[in-house]
Amino acid sequence: MKQPISLIVNGERHDTLCTPNLTLLEVLRENLQLTGTKHGCELGECGACAVLLGEEPVLSCLVLAMECDGLPITTVEGMKRGAELHPLQAAFADHGAAQCGYCTPGILVTAKALLDRNPSPTRTEVREALSGNLCRCTGYLQIFEAVEAAAGILREEKQ
Amino acid sequence: MSQRPLHIIGKARRRVDGRAKVSGETRFADDLILPRMLFCRLLRSPLPHARIVSIDVSRAQALPGVHLVLTGADLPTTFGILPVSQDEHALCLDKVRFVGDPVAAVIAQTELLAEEALALINVKYEPLTTIASPEEALAQSEPRIHDYGDSGNIHKSVAMSFGSVEQGFAEADHIFDDTFSYAGNTHLPLETHAAVAALDPDGKLTIWSSTQTPHYVHRSIAKVLALPPSRVRVIATPQGGGFGGKTDPFNHEIVICKAALVTGRPVKICLSREEVFYCHRGRHPVLMRLRCGVKQDGTLTALHLQTLLDGGAYGSYGVASTFYTGALQTVTYHLPSYRFEGCRVFTNKPPCGPKRGHGTVQPRFGQEVQLDKIAVALGLDPAELRLRIVEKPGALTANFLKIRTIGLAECIRSVVRRSGWADKHRKLPYGRGVGIACSSYLSGAGMPIYYNDMAHSGVQLKLDRSGLVTAFCGAAEVGQGSDDVLCASVAEVLGVEIADVKVVTGDTDLSPVDLGSYSSRVTLMMGNAAIQAAERARELVAGPVAAKLGVPVEQLVFSHGRVFPAAAPETGMSFREAVIIAEAVHGTLGTTGSYKPPKPAALFKGGGVGPSPTYSYTAAVIEVEVDPDTGWLHIEKIWIAHDIGRALNPTLTRGQVEGSVYMGLGEALMEEQAFRRLPPKLSGALVHRTPSILEYKSLTSLEMPDIDTELIEDPDPSGPFGGKEVGQGPLLPIMPALANAIFDAVGVRIDEVPITPEKILKGLANLQAGKPARVGPKGFPTVPYPEPLQVPTPWQGGDGRAVNDAVRSKDKRAKNV
Questions:
Q1: Averaged over A126-146, what is the pLDDT?
Q2: Rounded to the nearest 5 degrees, what angle is found at the Cα of B119, between the Cα atoms of B115 and B123?
């Protein structure tokens, strides 16, 4: 039986109907056509589907959409500042942190959550924060560098 | 045209598709949503080997919302990537050959409904004996998994001899005889395979697919559906990783094309992660034996390599993989004589195929570990030993591979210097060690997959009065940055900004053929084609501009978006103004460029595998810490140097090196495509032990060590702006360097990949018990290799032909007539 829910995605309210078994990932991609969020396993193993629920990264393939009724959600589509890239996005593009780009949306929001609570993470803290997000292309190092470069820019912005 | 320094090539830059990738706007295949789209799911075999007795689809067909159910009888034509292995059906016709082989397809209004309908299909199987391993395949010629191949369950068996290894062994001071084994592993791209097929309003068929090889998919679809290729359009969507796993034409692609033709509606399929493990086409498990003759000073006199490949259930690229296990032993170190024998067998497991380093990774592991053993036995430093025997630039090897530039010695010196090798090797405390290994890889396969005389890559340019240059090429962007190479190459030659070039790629309707993203071929082949097209465009524009300015064409410079005489830059004009002048003179402006590799020197049968326009070279040092109590490995650091010729975009080049190291380290430490037999009461079937990301272990951000990369740049005249490959070669030295480092740390030889803590503990236990401190295969089985082709080496006056190939000699005589 389909039920109405409201998701606050990237600051916009979306009213949609969904059955109780649908995951947040499915509703984002299929109901709302926000295909920026990816899927790699739908079993909570790869991290590609990470989004922010409030300020916390969650694996949207493991969260039921109905549990998110009325809650704020941030996806990669919500990171840009108007037409401008978020400093994390710009740093990822500039430092080679996105090769195929498939893990990138999940890693970007996870990194955003890290920098929002810890503006100056150490390399170890970056590694730990991203340890649930697999990347098969880069070998991670350029991702670490991009996160650290973006952290520097975000700190400058705050001053 | 006047020469000028490079403006774009060689500079670290944001890739041309970088913005889309970080904003979530890159449209991967599963992101495509078309009106009235239906969804497809495949029913896959639960048995590893069985005859299909009957399939009843009536209940599935009757389910409301189900539009179509297809079985093998609907798609009876075979296909496959290689012309010699057309052994796949889109849906199994009479037999299943591995757990996961597709037998039926349901096309329904939703994915869930299609999945539900699968359960209503009733398939009766008659189980057949499972062939689970190469040993079983050699021992049991019946039941045959396929009714083609060399014999029984042997798919392909080859043998070739270059010069006299007998004489080489006779001249040797020592002969080393070692066996190694390499486990199978898989690509694990984060994007699962997905595709959408639809009829155009004009009735033609279009498929968008996450494929590395749109051209070969095009050919396969046209063949199986009996359509003229001109009425089939294949669009390769940007891929979420391929690594070789998306280079075959796949059954699901053909199934949804058929479904779109029948239903007249768009049909999508997106494989689950489990299904990707069944598609596989990953690294072949290989057992190998290397006999190597060496003089006291380290000079190699002979190598005899034998390989046995577990091919899985279908041909795939397997014949090429078999030849590749023996192709590149000669391009790193000088080998005066060489014999190679290779054999691939069919087993009831997901088909193996090409993974990053295709077929050359496994024997490279054996060769580089054996060299380390040789160095120990001769009392030589393993780095110094390699430096003594490095092959020379311009050499023609024993098996007729033409070396162009070779930066291997510089690579070795680089990693030795930066790692502090001299202070560490055999000098670190117990439990810590360093190891070195080298490698080489193709910059593109010298021969096409199906024999033809056409170009391997084509680029078309369109210029018009807007000042925009559009570049069309069939190359597939798999994440490696091929769109960026195309854009940068054209922009560099025409002296315009990256933003003034648009690329249209991977679309068989719009773009000229490029054979695909495999064999590290795209940068070199597409890059050369792009340069040719852009140089022709530059000439087209320069003529009218020179006439207008009243200066000789040779004095014009194209730079920074302007066209001007070298001596008087201020009298020039913008590139856009120059195009307007040229368009007025010539009419519509367009050029083409194409690239075809040089003809191989190897003329013997099988000599088509191995030749390349040029080879890349890599050396790596790994420092490791081994915990002798637990066998646990900690990788301290990896130093790597890669002979790239020229790095076209150093940010991307470094990414390819580090990504290769990551993937190699995953193979070295943990990645393994493992199988197990169910107990007899559960059918005794052979099943995947690990069809999930959780169980198929790969490195996370926590395990990835620091890498210190140096790019060795000595431009190679064969490459675009001097560039060579980088996407695969740097993977190869990682596994042997790690094995060699472990020996330096604790004195244990692990002659197997992956190298797990259990194996290290076993090796240490052997050491304590006074047994040989080695973990590895016990021996090499008797394999019925054929009589080797005898090919005299270049230094014996050989002309690249075998002297005992009756068939080829006859062909040659026929041709002479």
A1: 98
A2: 125
Kindly state the average pLDDT of the residues B382-388: 98
User: Which residues of chain B make contact with A142, given a CB cutoff of 8 A?
Assistant: 651, 654-655, 658
CATH 1.10.1610.10 fits B455-595, yes or no: no
Per-residue pLDDT tens digits for B143-161: 999 999 999 999 999 999 9
> Which parts of A21-71 are beta strand (E)?
50-53, 56-59
| Distance of alpha carbon A19 from alpha carbon A65, whole angstroms | 9
Q: Kindly state the average pLDDT of the residues B700-711.
A: 98
Q: Which residues contact B316 (CB under 8 A, 6 or more apart)?
A: B80, B81, B82, B85, B248, B281, B351, B352, B353, B354
Report pLDDT digits (tens) over A56-91.
999 999 999 999 999 999 999 999 999 999 999 999
Closest CA of chain A from B24, distance in Å: 4
Gap between the Cα atoms of B808 and B811, Å rounded:
5
Distance from CA of B706 to the nearest CA of A (A): 7
Collect all residues of chain B within an 8 Å Cβ-Cβ radius of residue A77: 23-24
- Chain-chain contact of B662 with A140 (C-beta, under 8 angstroms): yes
DSSP string covering B685-739: -EEES--STTTS----TTTPPEEEEEEE----TTSGGG----SSGGGTTHHHHHH
Q: What's the number of CA atoms in the CB half-sphere (13 Å) around residue B730? A: 33
Q: Which of residues 111-140 of A touch B (CB under 8 A)?
A: 126-128, 130-140
User: What is the distance between the alpha carbons of residues B45 and A17, in angstroms, rounded to a whole number?
Assistant: 36
- Confidence band (pLDDT; 50, 70, 90) for B806? confident
Q: So what's the pLDDT on residue B817?
A: 39
Domains B33-128+190-241+246-279 and B455-595 share a fold: no
CB neighbours of residue B797 within 10 Å: 7
Domain with A37, as residue range(s), is: 3-76
Listed residue (B193, B194, B196) closest to B259, CA to CA: B196
- As for how many domains chain A has, the answer is 2
**Same domain? A7 vs A52:** yes
Distance CA A13, CA A73 (A): 10
Same domain, A59 and A98: no
Helix axes of A87-94 and A104-117: crossing angle, nearest 10 degrees: 130
Residue of chain B whose Cα is closest to the Cα of A22: B112
- Check if B275 contacts A (Cβ < 8 Å): no
Q: How many interchain CB pairs under 8 A, A with B?
A: 173
Q: Could you tell me if B612 and B626 are in contact, meaning their C-beta atoms sit under 8 angstroms apart? A: no
Interface predicted TM-score (ipTM) of this complex, two decimals = 0.98
Q: How far is Cα of residue A77 from the mean position of the Cα atoms in its chain?
A: 9
Residues 6+ apart with CB under 8 A from B768: none
Place of tokens 């000042």: B467
B188–chain A nearest CA distance, Å: 7
Residue B190 makes CB contacts below 8 A (sequence gap 6+) with A38, A40, A46, A48, A100, A102, A103, A134, A135, A136, B240, B241
Residues A67 and A98 in one domain: no
Q: A14 CB near a chain B CB, below 8 Å? A: no
Helix (H) or strand (E) holding B262: helix B251-263
Q: Are residues A68 and A93 in the same domain?
A: no
| B27 interaction partners in chain A (CB closer than 8 Å) | 35
Q: What is the pLDDT of residues B442-489, one digit of tens each?
A: 999 999 999 999 999 999 999 999 999 999 999 999 999 999 999 999
Q: Do residues B648 and B11 touch, judged by C-beta distance below 8 A?
A: no
In a domain, residue A82? The reply is no
Whether B811 shows a pLDDT value over 70: the answer reads no
Contacts of B192 in chain A (CB under 8 A): 39-40
Q: Which residues in chain A are contacts of B479 at CB distance < 8 A?
A: 99-102, 137
Q: Does A125 fall in a domain? A: yes
What pLDDT is attached to residue B809?
Answer: 60
Architecture field, domain B286-447+603-775: 2-Layer Sandwich (3.30)
